[in-house]
Write a structure and sequence with these properties.
The complex is a heterodimer of chains A (about 625) and B (about 450). With about 625 residues, chain A is an all-alpha fold. Chain A is built from 19 helices and two strands. In chain A, about 60% of the residues are buried. In chain B, a hairpin with a 4-residue loop joins strand 6 and strand 7. The longest helix of chain B has about 70 residues. Chain B is elongated. In chain B, helix 1 packs antiparallel against helix 3, helix 4 packs antiparallel against helix 5 and helix 5 runs antiparallel to helix 6. The chains are: A mainly alpha (about 625), B alpha+beta (about 450). Chain A: InterPro entries: Cyt_c_oxase-like_su1_dom (IPR023616), Cyt_c_oxase-like_su1_sf (IPR036927), Cyt_C_Oxase_1 (IPR000883), Cyt_c_Oxase_su1_BS (IPR023615).
């Protein structure tokens, strides 16, 4: 059933429009969901570029371990003395690359952008439930980004214990220089980030539950909204656990407690800590850490569903199954975290249980992948750049997801844990797939965000270079992992059995550099089109959802008049009997008598009777499959 | 009209830029080469000079150090001179980076800009082509759609070839059959999983990348309104579920058989303790009594870096080994501990891995099935060794924290074990005796006073 609808009268709303907006309130401390979405997106892009540059740096080290690059010394100073990256700094690069990509780009940049943009738009709301909290959410996120970046300007370097920051490495500064001030900054930054996520998540959930327009019941919501809604629930339930983990770690580091520490002799010095357990941290971390993977990938799946359906001009196949599989993933994501800890010394029986739950989660994921393919089947596919990225996303989701069957299997994980196989797996399934989902979203909703179109040719160039580049980078890594090459190794020169992979490392690094440069095409396209792009029309993709009923020019409150009412689900594409190949959600069934199906009326006897009469009068025969 | 002029102006400008770059770059590169030679020569002389200066400076520092010891009066002047010399070295360090480095960077940036220009020019040419087609009325709005769909087909072929290449070449590099009893079971499961996922990967990609081609938008095509089909959905929920159930059960029982070793087998196995620390491993065998002595991290001293508690008499005969040596076809139970932070005990050839966690002991029990000698013969590599390496990020030396694992016959193992040294060396015995007897002595002296 529909919930409370806050219907602003048009006249009443106009009065609101006239309050003075200064530069500061419009662009900086904006409380408008559209502007906040843009802020999230651009911050996310900046962070993505930064994190990508870090990855190129360590890829250079891995490909040419015996070569000096004096230019690195120019930029990095003592961290690359003589043109060679130091091992400690290599670990910092890996750590910050991971942290920024996972949290700042794929969590905030992805769901921050599109939840903010699309939840009010696609639900028919004037704005978020709490615009102030929304603004705070962005500014906490921004501060977190600034602090994390600032850790590069600390004498002892940024955090370098891996993005999972396992203590004791992260808590004992004598064990690695990055665990000094750099780690403290990491923890502060992460705490602020979590505050941002909680503020955002509460907002998304309350908006979805309370502010849907008339007629928009839950089963008429686009899959994007379902994905954002469930993602917000996952985030809200799991991020606070990370806060507790981070705060306890902070105590261990700065106050002298022993939550995670016991029996340590670091660099010959016997530490006084007793009674703690490093495994406790791993449990707390992965209780967030695994749901985090779904926080990253579910919005991408939602965006992809919408884009594939729109551009195949065909309803998404199995809408209900898609929602149930998202719900299934949401629930299961909380009881699989142990699969990151099979070989940490966790009770082996518990490991076996986690293995069972982990492999069950493959079922809803498989359903989603098959449904995407079924949506493409007999479609009328239009290859916009967004559609290309969406197809690429499904490809990555499948090829990365399948290798999860190895890693989720405790017995196989013995040999693959923490090797390059893992790196390949998660870079494909959550890294590349989510980035592609995000890019698909950017290409698709750019006209809505900026009122202009992006250049399609640059979009295709960007897609092909990135798609091929990502496969060249990550696919060979599986084999290195099977051979037993551990991740986070500074160089492969210390072991004879790794010599053979030097050539593969070269290939990977070159592919990474080319794919990295290809992002320039995107950046140019993105930023230049803000001012110079072709003016967008109101509904450039022929889409059904509500956001395309708003005017191209952004206005406060989204719709100039009354908020439109929703009559149908969002996927009536190519419905037989209708003259266009899409019927927006705002079109009532009374206007589409020639294409209505008995199923549309959800058992409303009166409506079915009227339709049947009309069918008889117009000689229309309906066969519903 | 205005638009046209503007466009032409831009095209001309772009052409000028491209031509300019085209001409300037080779000469630039040539110039650079000659420069590089010059700088190489000068750099050589520079280093010679610098070397001389360095030795001189070193001499001066030594001198100052000597004088500093002599008297306070001289110290002021020497510190002055040393600071001036250090400032001189700072000045030297400034231009240490060869100017060539900056030029190379500029060169690469220019190269990239040229690529960008080429891309821009190609883009412009394409749009001009499209415009002319439109003017001639021959424009096909679906041409690009077909083109991209064709690219997907080409990608599909390339992708499948790439996967095949990966399996055939890299897979061959990577794959070595396990040489432990449990490892063979893991390998069987690995191969079954690989077969299943390869089939799924290939089939899904064939469908995912051919459908876009077959069902691309063309003139007059229409999509088929097909919102759901419960039967099909049930099938592709149940089939993966069944396949996964089989894998789960198989995996679960394998996992239990590896980790859940019966108690009598635990006791009858050879016990070996491995301690990880930054950035090395220490190995301890239990000695004749077959029991590993207690360890107490609080007893760690420079001489007893392992922290063995010699109050426990089981520790007295514990044996120190430089490599992990184990007999073939005998069950070995490893006790994995850590001295400082988390490490991971990982032997890829054995399909063995368990983390070394401070404050707790982890165990891994397995039976190797092939000696190092046999493995070398099989691999046709006389230098091949089983390697145990650290597989959990542990600091700057993480990438080189290894131990050789040597599997030998039972006789060789016994012989080897008898030649190894004990942890309880004479020095340690003295230290132990001193600390143990030290306390009573003090008491007696106290009472005497």
């Amino acid at each position: 059933m529909s919930s409370t609808v806050i219907s602003h009268g048009a006249a009443h709303h106009d009065a609101h429009d006239h309050h003075q907006e200064t530069f500061l309130t419009k662009y900086i401390f904006s409380q408008d969901h559209k502007m906040i979405a843009k802020q999230f997106l651009i911050t996310g892009i900046v962070m993505a570029v930064f994190a990508m540059l870090l990855s190129i740096l360590f890829r250079i080290q891995l490909a040419w371990p015996d070569t000096d690059f004096p230019i690195l010394e120019v930029f990095l100073g003592k961290w690359a003395e003589g043109g060679r990256i130091k091992p400690e700094f290599f670990l910092s690069l890996v750590t910050i690359h991971g942290t920024m990509m996972v949290f700042f780009v794929l969590t905030a940049g992805l769901s921050g952008t599109f939840s903010n943009l699309l939840i009010p738009y696609q639900l028919g709301a004037r704005d978020m439930a709490s615009p102030l909290m929304n603004m705070l959410s962005y500014w906490f996120f921004f501060t977190a980004c600034v602090i994390m970046t600032a850790s590069f300007f600390v004498e002892s370097g940024p955090a370098s214990a891996g993005w999972t920051i396992y203590p004791p490495l992260s808590s004992v500064p004598t064990s690695i220089p990055g665990s000094g001030l750099g780690m403290t900054l990491w923890l502060i930054s992460m705490t602020l980030f979590i505050v941002s996520q909680v503020l955002g998540g509460v907002n998304y959930i309350s908006t979805v539950l309370n502010m849907r327009t008339k007629g928009m019941d839950l089963w008429k919501m686009p899959l994007t909204i379902w994905a954002f809604f469930l993602t917000a629930i996952v985030g809200l339930l799991s991020f606070p656990v990370l806060v507790s983990a981070v705060v306890l770690l902070f105590f261990d580091r700065s106050v002298g407690t022993s939550f995670y520490l016991s029996d340590l002799v670091v660099q010959g010095e016997i530490l006084p800590n007793e009674g703690g357990s490093p495994i406790l941290f791993q449990h707390l971390f992965w209780f967030l850490g695994h749901p985090e993977v779904y926080i990253v990938v579910m919005p991408a799946l939602g965006l992809t569903s919408e884009i594939i359906s729109t551009n195949s001009r065909k309803p998404i196949f199995g809408y209900h199954a898609m929602v149930y599989s998202l719900v299934g993933i949401t629930v299961l994501s909380f009881i699989v975290w142990g699969h990151h800890m099979f070989v940490t010394g966790m009770n082996p029986f518990l490991g076996g249980v986690f293995m069972i739950t982990t492999l069950i989660i493959a079922v809803p994921s498989a359903v989603k992948a098959f449904n995407y393919i079924a949506t493409l089947w007999r479609g009328n596919i239009r290859f916009t750049p967004a559609m290309m990225f969406a197809i690429g996303m499904v490809s990555f989701f499948v090829s990365g997801g399948l290798t999860g069957l190895y890693l989720g299997n405790a017995a196989l994980d013995i040999n693959l844990h923490d090797t390059y196989f893992v790196v390949a797996h998660f870079h494909l399934v959550m890294g590349s797939a989510s980035i592609f989902g995000m890019l698909a979203g950017v290409y698709h909703w750019y006209p809505k965000m900026f009122g202009r179109m992006m250049d399609t040719k640059l979009g295709y160039l960007h897609f092909w270079l990135t798609f091929i580049g990502a496969y060249l980078v990550f696919f060979p890594m599986h084999f290195m992992g099977i051979d037993g090459v551990p991740r986070r190794y500074y160089t492969f020169t210390a072991f004879p059995f790794m010599d053979k992979w030097i050539s593969v490392n070269l290939l990977i690094t070159w592919a990474a550099i080319i794919a990295g440069l290809a992002q320039v095409a995107f950046l140019w396209n993105f930023f230049a089109s803000i001012w110079k792009g072709k003016k967008a029309t109101q509904n450039p993709w022929g889409s059904n959802t509500l956001e395309w009923t708003t005017p191209v020019e952004h206005i406060h409150g989204n719709w100039p008049g009354e908020i439109p009412t929703v009559y149908r689900w969002p996927y009536d594409y190519s419905k037989p009997g209708h003259d266009t190949d899409f019927i927006p959600q705002t079109v009532p069934f009374s206007e589409t008598m020639s294409s209505n199906l008995p199923h549309d009326f959800e058992g409303n006897e009166e409506a079915i009777r009227i339709q049947e009469e009309w069918n008889k009068a117009n000689n229309r025969e309906v066969i519903e499959g | 009209m205005k638009f046209k002029i503007n466009n032409r102006f831009r095209a001309v400008l772009g052409c000028l830029l491209a031509v300019g770059l085209l001409f300037s770059t080779p000469s630039f590169a040539f110039q650079q080469d000659s420069l590089a030679q010059d700088t190489a020569v000068s750099a050589a002389t520079d280093t010679v000079e610098e070397g001389q200066v360095d030795t001189a400076a070193a001499g001066a520092v030594a001198d100052t150090a000597a004088t500093a010891e002599e008297g306070g009066a001289a110290a002021a002047t020497t510190s002055g001179s040393s600071s001036s010399s250090s400032s001189a070295t700072v000045v030297d360090e400034g231009p240490q980076i060869d100017p060539q480095v900056y030029k190379n960077l500029t060169y690469y940036i220019l190269l990239f800009l040229i690529v960008c220009t080429v891309v821009a020019v190609v883009g412009k040419v394409l749009s001009i082509y499209e415009l002319t087609r439109k003017m001639n009325g021959k424009y096909n709005p679906f041409a690009n759609n077909t083109f991209q769909a064709t690219l997907f087909i080409i990608f599909l072929v390339a992708f499948l070839a790439f996967v095949y290449y990966g399996y055939a070449v890299w897979g061959d590099w990577a794959w070595r059959a396990a040489v432990t009893e449990h490892g063979e079971r893991i390998d069987t499961m690995f191969i079954i999983t690989t077969v299943i996922i390869t089939i799924v990967l290939v089939l899904v990609h064939i469908l995912l990348l051919t459908f876009p081609y077959i069902y691309r938008m063309r003139k007059g095509t229409k999509a088929y309104y097909y919102p759901h089909n419960d039967t099909i959905e049930k099938i592709w929920t149940i089939v993966p579920a069944v396949v996964l159930t089989v894998l789960v059960l198989f995996g679960f029982f394998t996992w239990r058989s590896i980790t859940n070793v019966p108690e009598d087998l635990q006791k009858s196995a050879i016990q070996v303790e491995v301690l990880g620390e930054q950035f090395q491993w220490q190995i301890r065998y239990p000695g004749n009594d077959g029991v590993i002595g207690k360890r107490n991290y609080k007893l760690t001293t420079p001489m007893n870096s392992y922290g063995i508690d010699f109050n426990d008499k089981h520790a007295w005969d514990d044996i120190q080994a430089s490599d992990i040596v184990i007999p073939v076809n005998k069950s070995v139970r490893f006790h994995i501990i850590s001295k400082d932070i988390i490490h991971s005990f990982y032997i890829p050839d054995f399909r063995v891995q368990i983390n070394a966690v401070p404050g707790m002991t982890n165990y891994f029990q397995f039976t190797p099935t092939m000696t190092t000698e046999d493995m070398r013969e099989k691999m046709n590599d006389p230098k091949y060794d089983f390697i145990m390496l650290c597989n959990k990020i542990c600091g700057s030396g993480h990438y080189n924290m290894q131990k050789k694992v040597i599997v030998v016959t039972e006789e060789e193992y016994k012989e080897w074990l008898s030649t190894q040294n004990k942890y309880f060396t004479e020095d340690l015995q003295k230290e132990f005796a001193a600390t143990n007897s030290g306390d009573p002595k003090e008491f007696t002296t106290a009472s005497l006073n």
